[in-house]
Backbone:
């Protein structure tokens, strides 16, 4: 009989071994149950003992793996930080939460990449602009060399033809209107050809600028003096507002004078029945890029830089919208019948560009046009 | 009135001839032309002009060298020399009052009126 059961019966019968024969089969049954329970308990104990060992081992393994992961994460952090040192603050901010750290880090990296791409795109555009500018300068030089060479060869025959026509005009005493007109037209054609060559030579001389520190107001006044006769003839009033305190600008005096004269003469032709020309000069410190013009200008004039500006406004009929974007094209003119070569504004723009400045010509809201010139100090 | 003698030194023969026709037609001038720079000095010594129109770009000898020869010779040093050239532009000449580097200049093409005006300005009556 099961020992535990024997002890319990003894305790229950107060030491007596004599048990009623009738309950013996029941007690043996209970004894079997006790034995079976003991076997089960020892089995459970053994199994529990095994699990606990396994758990300890598994725990140990997990700890080792966690340590390995931490080492990898630390290594990754150090690599990422060395890749983008400016993002260092992130490692301090979110060192407790690696997932957040990585998400922030990677999103920041993506932003950085986007910014880099944008900067690269801008740099490429700038490079392209510079390249175009260089091509333009190179083109001018080629035109220059060509013009210088050709002009000498063309001017000589022109000189001969002009004197020849003048001689014939004197000698042919014909009253035939057609003969008189033919000679007159020939003379005009020579003048026109000469004017075109002069225009091309102006292109030619653009690569040679004589840059000095100049007062823009003096150049405006001198240019106005040179066109006075023409203005008086067309009854054009001139009003000036030239700020005395403007800084000197680095320019080629003769070339910029040519620019002003060209713009003044265009206004004079536009106001052949009279009008008013207003010329202003002032200086301005650029606060924000993009405020005073397009990208090109922003590239030329940096925030904080001072520029000298001249505005020339007339009260003429303005420029028709459909030709506004063509006015700077070489040989584009609306006055070909009056001897216009179409080189004037094209030369003006080239001169301004060679000075790293900018020119804008717009229709005024109240009528007429306003030309604005921007110069570097 | 005695006609003023004008010597034209220019390799462009046609142009010289046109100048000659026009100037002589005015009745005030006697013109001689010379198309070889090398012969300019000899022509000036022989013709004794009141004024010389001198081209700059000539195939045999450049105009400024001819001017130097003329200035160095006792017989020709006082003769006024006017450069007549297609090298400069009219507005360049005008802005310098017609004088560049001490010499009067005339830019081609030029009208007969301007040529006569130039002669009268640079010669004694």
Residues:
């Amino acid at each position: 009989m099961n020992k535990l059961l024997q002890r319990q019966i003894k305790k229950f019968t107060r030491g007596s071994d004599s048990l009623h024969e009738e309950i013996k089969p029941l007690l043996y049954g209970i004894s079997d149950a006790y034995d079976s329970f003991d076997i089960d308990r020892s089995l459970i104990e053994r199994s529990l003992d095994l699990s606990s060992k396994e758990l300890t081992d598994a725990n140990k393994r997990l700890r080792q793996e966690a340590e390995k992961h931490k080492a990898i994460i630390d290594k990754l952090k150090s690599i990422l930080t060395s890749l983008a040192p400016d993002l260092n603050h992130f490692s301090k901010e979110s060192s407790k939460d690696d997932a957040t750290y990585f998400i922030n880090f990677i999103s920041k990296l993506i932003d950085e990449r986007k910014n880099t791409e944008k900067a690269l795109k801008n740099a490429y555009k700038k490079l392209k602009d510079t390249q175009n500018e260089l091509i333009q300068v190179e083109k001018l030089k080629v035109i220059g060399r060509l013009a210088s060479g050709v002009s000498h060869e063309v001017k000589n025959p022109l000189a001969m033809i002009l004197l020849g026509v003048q001689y014939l005009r004197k000698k042919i005493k014909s009253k035939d209107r057609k003969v008189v007109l033919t000679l007159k037209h020939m003379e005009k054609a020579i003048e026109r050809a000469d004017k075109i060559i002069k225009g091309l030579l102006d292109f030619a001389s653009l690569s040679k600028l004589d840059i000095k520190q100049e007062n823009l107001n003096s150049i405006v006044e001198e240019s106005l003096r040179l066109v006075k006769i023409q203005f008086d003839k067309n009854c054009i009033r001139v009003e000036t507002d030239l700020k005395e305190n403007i800084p000197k600008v680095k320019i080629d005096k003769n070339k910029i004078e040519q620019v002003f004269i060209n713009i003044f003469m265009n206004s004079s032709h536009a106001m052949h029945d009279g009008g008013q020309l207003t010329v202003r000069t002032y200086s301005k410190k650029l606060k924000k890029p993009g405020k005073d013009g397009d990208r090109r200008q922003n590239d030329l004039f940096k925030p904080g830089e001072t520029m000298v500006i001249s505005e020339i406004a007339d009260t003429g009929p303005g420029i028709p919208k459909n030709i506004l974007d063509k006015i700077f094209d070489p040989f584009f003119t609306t006055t070909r019948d009056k001897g216009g070569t179409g080189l004037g504004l094209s030369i003006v723009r080239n001169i301004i560009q060679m000075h790293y400045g900018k020119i804008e010509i717009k229709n005024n809201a109240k009528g007429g046009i306003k030309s604005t010139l921007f110069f570097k100090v | 009135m005695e006609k003023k003698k004008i010597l034209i030194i220019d390799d462009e023969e046609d142009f010289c001839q046109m100048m000659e026709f026009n100037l002589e037609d005015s009745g005030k001038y006697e013109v001689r032309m010379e198309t070889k720079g090398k012969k300019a000095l000899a022509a000036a010594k022989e013709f004794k002009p009141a004024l010389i129109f001198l081209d700059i770009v000539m195939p045999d000898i450049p105009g400024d060298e001819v001017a130097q020869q003329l200035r160095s010779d006792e017989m020709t040093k006082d003769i006024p020399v006017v450069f007549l050239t297609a090298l400069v532009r009219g507005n360049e000449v005008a802005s310098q009052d017609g004088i560049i580097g001490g010499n009067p200049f005339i830019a081609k093409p030029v009208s007969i009126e301007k040529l006569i005006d130039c002669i009268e300005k640079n010669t004694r009556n």
